[in-house]
Amino acid sequence: MSTNATNGSQTTDDLPETADENETSADGPPDASEDAAGAPDERIDELEAQVESLKDERDELNERLLRKAAEFDNFRRRMKREKERRYTNGKLDVIEPLLEVVDDFERSMEATKDLEDAQDAESAYESLKGGVEMVFRKFRDTLETLGVEPIEAEGEPFDENLHEAMMRQPTDDAEPGTVLHEIRKGYRMGDRVVRHSRVVVAAQEEEGE
Q1: Which residues does 121 contact at the CB level (< 8 Å), separation at least 6?
Q2: DSSP class of residue 152?
Q3: Rounded mean pLDDT of the chain?
Q4: What are phi and psi of 160, to 5 degrees?
Q5: Tell me, what's the pLDDT at 118?
Q6: Are 10 and 1 in contact (CB under 8 A)?
Q7: What's the rounded Cα separation, in Å, for the pair 11 and 52?
Q8: Where are the alpha helices (DSSP H) in 118-194?
Q9: How many CB atoms neighbour CB 142 within 10 A?
Q10: Residue 120 CB neighbours (<10 A)
């Protein structure tokens, strides 16, 4: 089919080109729709991969926490055993020298009994007295080796950190607040008070008395 130059009518030669253009334009939209349809699937795959990664991290953290908990439990048990061991050793360190004091007591009692059987009362008394004095000295020396010493009380200003006031006694012989008498001796070990001294404290004497 030809085109007439004067009236602009088309011939059949132009038809194949028009068909090709229509074919090209028809092929375009299906490719774009396929890309759009594939995008959600890729996003889902990415999210699933992230979820799996987070699960792995969670499992790893749980495992680490369990290991740490087990290590802490073992540490706590070791510390408990060590504390018990030190406590036992501490008691042994105190008990062992005291056993010698007990031995001296037993020897003194046996010697006194032998003298009583011999009906020698005076010698029995002197033996018992000497034995008690010896035991007392040894016991006092044992306390010193352990770092235990008596608290000074009589004549000292009353100190609530060291002394326990059992009563107040009005007097002119000492300044108020001074320890007059010691009822029970107190002891300290370094800076720590083992037992407070029980004391009588001087008070100001009231007028007219």
Answers
A1: 115
A2: P
A3: 80
A4: -65, -15
A5: 65
A6: yes
A7: 66
A8: 121-145
A9: 16
A10: 13
Q: How far apart are CA 152 and CA 186, in angstroms?
A: 8
Question: Both tokens of residue 182?
Answer: 């010691």
Looking up tokens 């890729």 gives 42
- pTM, rounded to two decimals: 0.54
Retrieve residue 46's tokens.
């990415």
Of 20-24, 46-50, 73-77, the range with the lowest mean pLDDT is: 20-24
Amino acid present at 32: A
CA angle 68, 79, 148 (to 5 degrees): 155
Q: Which residues on neighbouring strands pair with residue 166, listed in sequence order?
A: none
Structure tokens at 59: 């499992």
Half-sphere exposure of 194 (CA within 13 A, CB side): 14
The type of residue at 102 is V
pLDDT at position 5, please? 44
